[in-house]
Amino acid sequence: MELWQQMVRDSIHTVDQLVEKFNIDRKIAEDLDEFFQARINPYYFSLIRYPGDPIWLQCVPDKAELEDFDADEDPLMEDAMSPVPNITHRYPDRALFLVTSQCGLYCRFCTRKRKVGDYEKISMKGLESAFEYLEQHTEIRDVILSGGDPLMLTDTMLEKILKRIREIPHIEIIRLGTKMPCVLPHRITESLCEMIKKYHPIYVNTHFNHPWEITPESSRACEMLANAGVPVGNQMVLMKGVNDDPAVVKELMQKLLKIRVRPYYMYMADETKGANHFRTSIETGLNIIENLRGHTSGLAIPHFVIDAPGGGGKIPIIPNYVLHKDEERIILRNFQHKVYTYKNYADANNPEGFGSKSKTNGKNGKNGSNGNGKGKKEDMKPKKIKLPELSEIEN
User: Is 68 one of the catalytic residues?
Assistant: First the structure.
């Protein structure tokens, strides 16, 4: 048995342990265990500095989970978009492939808690039909292995899956969605990295949420993957009490770059059952991006997205840097709130733009020239934009 497997076996997971270690009322601990079981491996448990800290909040069951039963179990409609067991096909050229129900740590904010930890919900029996679906759908060029966590599989089992996918000629990219570099970095071994190298291009999307998770062990794991030719990206979930502070996120993103992990996504927390106490306002997320853009390297700025309820996919959100836009110009403000104008030039997508023939032969008076170079210069002050009401959009 490898060290990481022993650490999974030694995890805190029983009601008795929850009562003893975290002073949770036994009845509440029993209800929480029935709702979504705990798994806190010894490594991640060692990162807790005090009760209620950002590490504790992510892994220790909380009675607040039992007060959020009105939320959806599957807010992203993954099951509705599953043509065969273990596959979710939402986007045109890529598919999600669930290969295990197990994780090295059960995160309390998990969006897939309806399945995670249940061998029957994500079964190895569904692998063959999943492979056949991928073979038949030639539009799929990118496959994301997830679960659970695909690195909970042994090297031998994972290699069987990678080898089978690599035999499908139209699949170009394989991604591993794994939290192991963060929560159980001992899983990243030399033998694993050597095996992965045989099936490139392989990418890893990992999941650090707080600077305290970047340790000598997790740093080494990420660097081993990078040294094996695996680009590593990070997906952070924005959570109240964990990372809803611009300074915390900035520190995390900068530290990730130092261990060769590229910030990829910053998610609003999914509207999944049992996670309402983690949710922040959208304004909190926008404020974080405002405090990153221009204040640190662009490499350190993730895409801020909402994974739309109802299966709409990831939708980007950015602060409003555009003050005005028309055919001839765009007026922008920067991170210091200074205002700048950029000409919107004419081309096939903007035929009436700046410098178009119709604007220079006297047919109209725009461009500040009236067509003859002697016209009154147009007012360049920013103009207010009237946004449609929600009811107008819905109708």
Answer: no
Decide: 308 and 301 in contact? Cβ < 8 Å. Answer: no
Question: Does residue 108 have an active-site annotation?
Answer: no
Q: Which residues pair with 174 in a beta bridge?
A: 143, 202
Active site residue 91: yes
Question: What value does the mean pLDDT of the chain take?
Answer: 91
Crossing angle of helices 15-22/26-35, nearest 10°?
Answer: 130
Q: Do 384 and 372 form a contact (C-beta atoms < 8 A)? A: no
* Catalytic annotation, pick one of 21, 63, 90, 121: 90
CA distance 368 to 379: 9
Chain mean position to CA 8: 25
The question of whether 307 is a catalytic residue gets the answer yes
Q: What number is the average pLDDT over the span 73-94?
A: 92
Q: Please tell me the predicted confidence (pLDDT) of residue 119.
A: 80
The answer to whether 145 and 95 are in contact (CB under 8 A) is: no
Burial (CB < 10 A; 0-12, 13-18, 19+), residue 121, is middle
Peptide bond into 246 cis (omega under 30): no
Catalytic residue among 59, 107, 182, 222: 107
**CA 175 to CA 145: how far, in whole Å?**
6
Q: Both ends of the chain: CA-CA distance in Å? A: 61
164 is annotated as an active-site residue: no
Instruction: Collapse the DSSP code of 327 into the 3-class scheme (helix H, G, I; strand E, B; otherwise coil) and give the result.
Output: coil
Known catalytic membership, residue 333: no
- Burial (Cβ within 10 Å: 0-12, 13-18, ≥19) of residue 294: exposed
CA distance 207 to 182: 7
**pTM for the whole thing?**
0.89
Length of the chain: 395
230-268 burial: b if 16+ Cβ within 10 Å, else e: bbbbbbbbbbeebbbebebbbbbbbbbeebebebbbbbb
User: Is 10 known to be catalytic?
Assistant: no
Neighbours of 115 (CB within 10 A): 19
Q: Which of 112, 113, 359, 366 is catalytic?
A: 112
Active site residue 314: yes
Most confident of 126-130, 192-196, 364-368, 385-389: 192-196
